[in-house]
Amino acid sequence: MQMKLDRKTGRYTQSITLKNADGAAAGPMSLILDSLSSHAWLFNTNGTTSCAIPTGSPYVNVDIGADGSLNPRERATVILEFSNPSGQAISYTPRVVTGAGAR
Questions:
Q1: Is residue 95 part of a domain?
Q2: Per-residue confidence of the chain (103 residues) as pLDDT tens digits?
Q3: What pLDDT does residue 21 have?
Q4: Residue 92 forms part of a structural domain
Q5: Which of 21, 22, 59, 91 has a CB 3.0–4.6 Å from the CB of 32, allowing a cystine?
């Protein structure tokens, strides 16, 4: 997962493409970043998990289109923006949550 420094904003960006390989996934859909490096934070977060364990992980909502589902072989792309004053490598464990309800 390659990150690039946007010199204009000073933030690191990363493009993540999610691909559905099996069965329709009903939205809404969120990409959760578990165990995000302590020296970085997700700038464009939509919130942090409070129900999906582990709690306190930042997440971004994924645009899966007007039909509200990610069908087999469909893809959705998310751009992540990180603030990282230390410049150290950023790591996290990605997790996808789908369906209505709190994250």
A1: no
A2: 689 999 999 999 999 999 998 888 888 999 999 999 999 999 999 999 998 789 999 999 999 999 999 999 999 999 999 999 998 999 999 999 999 888 8
A3: 87
A4: no
A5: 59
Please report, as a single letter, which amino acid is at residue 83.
S
- Which pTM does this prediction carry? 0.90
CA 96 to CA 80: how far, in whole Å? 14
Handedness of CA 20, 41, 90, 35 (dihedral sign): negative
Does any domain span residue 47?
yes
Tokens of 54: 């582990």
In contact, 29 and 100? CB cutoff 8 Å: no
Residue 32 lies in a domain: yes
Give the residue numbers spanning the domain of 23.
4-86
- Alpha-carbon span 100 to 102, nearest angstrom: 7
- The domain tally of the chain equals 1
